[in-house]
Design goal:
- The chain is of the alpha/beta class.
- It has one domain: Putative cyclase (Glucose Oxidase, domain 1).
- It is about 20% helix and about 20% strand.
- The protein has 9 helices and 15 strands.
- The strands form 4 sheets. Strands 1-15-13-7-8-10-12-4-14 form a 9-stranded mixed β-sheet.
- The two termini are about 30 Å apart.
Length: about 300
C-alpha cells in the first residue's frame, strides 16, 4: 500500500483525470447517487438487525458562537383560538453551510477552475433564485444505502484527529480492513474523527472556514473515495485546513469531480460507540433532504439503523 504524500500534480489528477463527468447521461444532475440502485437499497434494508435508530445530526444552534457566527433565526408565537384552544407557530431561517449545522451539500455547491459538476459554468447555472442543475432537489426521493463507519480514533488509539496527523487515504483502507468491512459501490462512508473530544481539549472546531487551521481528511483520501465508487461521505471533521497544495478544495472536491453527496457537521459519537459495542460497522443509512428546488444543500437528520 503506497503511503506517499501526493504531490500537487497528483492531487490535480485526482480531481481531473478521474472525474465522473458524463458517466450517468440519463440522470446527470444526481451524480454518484445513481450508484444507489433498487438492489442497493434492498441490501441496505437487510443490514437492519436490532432496529436501533441513531441520529447523526447536531442540534440546530440558536445562539452565536466562535464557530457559528450565523445561528438560526427561531421565533415562536402563540395563536389563541375559539373555545379556549390555541396553537403554537414558529419561524425558522437557516444559513446552513459551514462547520456547525448538519447539512447535505448539493452538486452545485462547489467548483474549481474546471467548473462545477459535469463541467458546468457556475455563471450559467447559478442565480439569486437558485441553481438550474445539480441542486439538492435532484435527491428529493431521499438517499437510502449501506453505511459503513470508519472509526479513526479507535484505530489510532487516540481520542481525536489533531492538526499534526490528518487522515490519509491509505489509513481509511487500513481501518476498513481492521474492522472487517469492505467498501462496495454506492456505499456511504461515515468517517468518525472525534470532533467532540477535539473540541473539549482544544475549543471549538474551525471558526471561519477560510484561512482557519483545523484537522480533518487529507487530499490523499480522494482516491479512496473514487476507487471504491462511493456515493456519500458523512463526516464530523472536514478537509484538513489549510491544505498545502493551494487548490480550491481537496476532499470537498469529490462534489464537483466525482458527483458525491457530502454530509458536513455530522454527530457521530453515539454511532461510533454503538458500532464498537456490537463490533458491527455496517448499517442502513437514510438521508432525506428538504425538497428545496434550486438549493445548494439542505439541513438533514441522517439516521443510521443497526
Amino acid at each position: 500500500m503506497d503511503k506517499t504524500i501526493p504531490t500537487r500534480e497528483q492531487v490535480d489528477r485526482y480531481l481531473k483525470d478521474r472525474r465522473n463527468w458524463g458517466r450517468w447521461p440519463q440522470n446527470p444532475g444526481a451524480g454518484a447517487i445513481n450508484l444507489i440502485t433498487a438492489e442497493k437499497r434492498v441490501q441496505a434494508a437487510s443490514l437492519v438487525k436490532s432496529g436501533k435508530p441513531i441520529s447523526l445530526a447536531r442540534p440546530l444552534p440558536v445562539e452565536p458562537s466562535h464557530d457559528n457566527t450565523k445561528p438560526i433565526d427561531f421565533y415562536m408565537k402563540r395563536m389563541l383560538w375559539i373555545d379556549g384552544g390555541g396553537a403554537a407557530l414558529d419561524y425558522i431561517s437557516i444559513f446552513q453551510h459551514g462547520l456547525t449545522i448538519t447539512h447535505l451539500d448539493a452538486l452545485c455547491h462547489m467548483w474549481d477552475k474546471n467548473g462545477t459538476w459535469e463541467g458546468k459554468n457556475p455563471d450559467d447555472i447559478l442565480s439569486f433564485d437558485g441553481a438550474s442543475f445539480g441542486a439538492v432537489d435532484e435527491w428529493s426521493d431521499g438517499i437510502m444505502t449501506r453505511g459503513v463507519l470508519l472509526d479513526v480514533p479507535r484505530f489510532r488509539g487516540t481520542a481525536y484527529v489533531d492538526n499534526d496527523s490528518p487522515v490519509h487515504g491509505w489509513e481509511l483502507q487500513e481501518i476498513a480492513e481492521a474492522q472487517g468491512v469492505k467498501m462496495t459501490p454506492g456505499d456511504a462512508v461515515v468517517v468518525y474523527c472525534g470532533r467532540e473530544a477535539y473540541e473539549e481539549a482544544n475549543g471549538n472546531y474551525g471558526g471561519d472556514p477560510v484561512g482557519s487551521k483545523y484537522p480533518g481528511l487529507h487530499a490523499s483520501c480522494l482516491p479512496f473515495l473514487r476507487d471504491n465508487d462511493l456515493s456519500v461521505l458523512v463526516w464530523d471533521m472536514e478537509d484538513a485546513s489549510p491544505n498545502e497544495y493551494g487548490v480550491a478544495w481537496t476532499v470537498h472536491g469529490a462534489i464537483h469531480a466525482y458527483g458525491m453527496a457530502l454530509i458536513d457537521g455530522a454527530a457521530l459519537v453515539a454511532l461510533a460507540d454503538e458500532c464498537a459495542k456490537e463490533n458491527r460497522y455496517e448499517f442502513m443509512l437514510t438521508v432525506n433532504p428538504l425538497v428545496l428546488v434550486g438549493g445548494t444543500g439542505s439541513p438533514v437528520n441522517p439516521i443510521a439503523v443497526l
